[in-house]
Structure prediction request, 421 residues.
Amino acid sequence: MATLNFALVNTTGSNTVYAYVTGRAIDNNNALFLLGADGKTAYYPTSPSATLTGLSQDCAIPLGASGSTKTVTIPHIAGGRIWFARDGKLTFYLNPGPNLVEPSASNPSDANYNVYWDFCEFTWNSSQLYVNISDVDFVSLPIAIALTNTSGTTSSVQGLPSNGLTTVCNALKAQNAKDGAGWDQLVIAKNGTNIRAVSPNLGIVLNNSLFSSYYTAYVNQVWSKYASTTLTVNTQAAAGNVTATVSNGTLNFSGGISYAKPSTGDIFSNSSGAFAVSGNATKDAITARLAAAFNRSTLLINTNQPNGEVVSNYYQNAITNHYARICHATTINGRGYAFPYDDVSPNGGVDQSGSVYDANPKLLTVTVGGGSTSTVAEDVVSRPSAAPPVPKRPSAAPPVPKKPGHLGGLKKVWHKFSRSG
Prediction:
């Protein structure tokens, strides 16, 4: 069975950091997989008879003192996550299936809610290793990734600096002082210490009145603009460029594709109402680009989406996804998934998503706690045109015992995976 080494580096300043590796074992009929505490032994749970059954094996991998590296070995995995917890352990449960009940950042009754934890995502199959850091749900522990291939070339995403969470939380509070929209409510603290900053979408899960009409004025401006101006969307797929105008209150594209005005919740989640996945490949490609343009607030200044975009134009409107803006401004090289369609970019444009991938991986280095994993300047990375992104679903965070519904997914179609549960 094929295996690959991951080097897990602790730079948190704490000597008590644990890692967990979860996913589906591709070479074992996609069985639910967790890595044992030794970092080498596979654990395949059996289906329990009741919900919220504890794991029968210890899967907390100690990383050792700050500054040390723990090397773990994994098989081919789909829908993988590498979880980190500082100054405490995470609690995972099993539901019948077996399905894994993962920690939730938006359920205050979850056993892990007040633990300082975070994760990165990966899929390793016979085609490639794909890894990304994700701010779609929240930011907490800084995580950086560096992927070295068999030719010795390394690509990396630097992630947040060591003080990144403090910087993000302070910036959210400062933004709220400007507009009073509720950005400070995205800061989650325990005993006066920040443990995470959640995305607007998860903020709405925690408080359903938050941001209730935040985007309304901007959406109205967009609809007014395209009542007399043509919007062009490059699907970056077989449909090529498609055009639309607003009539009778609806944004109408050729081929019978149309959009009602999206709500603030639609824009932040990228997955409800006007922006729900339709199953129509062309519409879903348009949706990805519209959702990205709304989160970045570029529709009033650019009628050609996403081509014609430049990063300096993102988040310049007073009404925008300030969480995404702040996350990108805080990461060392500006890259990270700050909303589900953050991998949308112009053809040949600068990639915003915090991902690395290679068909010939040799070693993945994951650093938790801040600090560069590589000197490679990844801020100039560009991506060619490709199939439309598959959304990275933010956690719906239903109450325990049901598992939080982070499905995951990435720009290239073959990166899509299903979460257990």
